[in-house]
Amino acid sequence: MREKFLSLSTVGVPLDRMNVDTDAIIPARYLKTIKRTGLGEGLFFAWRYDMDGKEQPDFPLNRPEYRGGKVLVSGENFGCGSSREHAVWALMDFGFRAVIAPSFSDIFHDNCLKNGMLPVTLPAAAVRSLIDALLAAPGGKVAVDLAGQTVTGPDGDIHAFGVAPFAKTCLLEGLDEIALTLTSAGEIDRYERERKKTTPWLFLDLAG
Questions:
Q1: Which of 89, 97, 48, 51 is closest to 72 using CA atoms?
Q2: pTM given for the model
Q3: In what order do the strands lie in the sheet with 7-15?
Q4: What does the pLDDT profile of the chain (208 residues) look like in tens digits?
Q5: Under a CB-based contact definition with an 8 Å cutoff, are residues 85 and 111 in contact?
């Protein structure tokens, strides 16, 4: 089980860039680990820090007005490039639970859903409006209601979004693929018991 995704009302973080690829999200040198923690420090590394490792003060993630925001709003084709799942892990480790964009790479989109992050696809004009509002008034709130499938911007405008019913259920109930399988543990056990009765030779321990 993982944390359920129900709704968010949080500071929105604008990343006014198109074609943000996974190498920009998390550099390749961070891919040596299979742990999902600690990757937040490398998120957008080349954009967040200068050559001396100091924070770039103008980058949104470094500005105090956007600190603690859990919704990232960015341009089209977000998550393009390689299929590294670490990109989603880095975003989540930093604290993001949703990304809003006009379009996503298919693999990145699927990786989000498998890891409990919500990718929200909105029309380009709606995303542009959200980014402009967040840039004009840093610290503005964005609300994401998964059950109602709506995003409410800082100006109060409400935008509807689509999500696959199966993915929505998994997010709302906090189920990953393993936890989803375990919900059928009783049926799996029953099948194995009956299978052993009808085809016992399949369960012989030949190694012993």
A1: 97
A2: 0.86
A3: 118-121, 98-101, 71-74, 7-15, 141-145, 150-152, 158-160
A4: 678 898 999 999 999 999 999 999 999 988 888 888 889 999 999 999 999 999 999 999 999 999 999 999 999 999 999 888 999 999 999 999 999 999 999 999 999 999 999 999 999 999 999 999 999 999 999 999 999 999 999 999 999 999 999 999 999 998 876 656 556 667 767 777 778 888 887 777 766 5
A5: yes
- The yes/no answer on whether domain 7-200 falls in CATH 3.20.19.10 is yes
Q: What is the dihedral of CA 45, 51, 54, 58, to 10 degrees?
A: -70
Helix (H, G, I), strand (E, B) or coil at 98: strand
Beta strands 71-74 and 7-15 are parallel
Decide if 76 contacts 101 (C-beta within 8 A): yes
Distance separating alpha carbons of residues 108 and 87, to the nearest angstrom: 8
Q: Which residues pair with 104 in a beta bridge?
A: 78
Largest CA distance in the chain: 71
Amino acid 56 reads Q
Tokens of 180: 């989803």
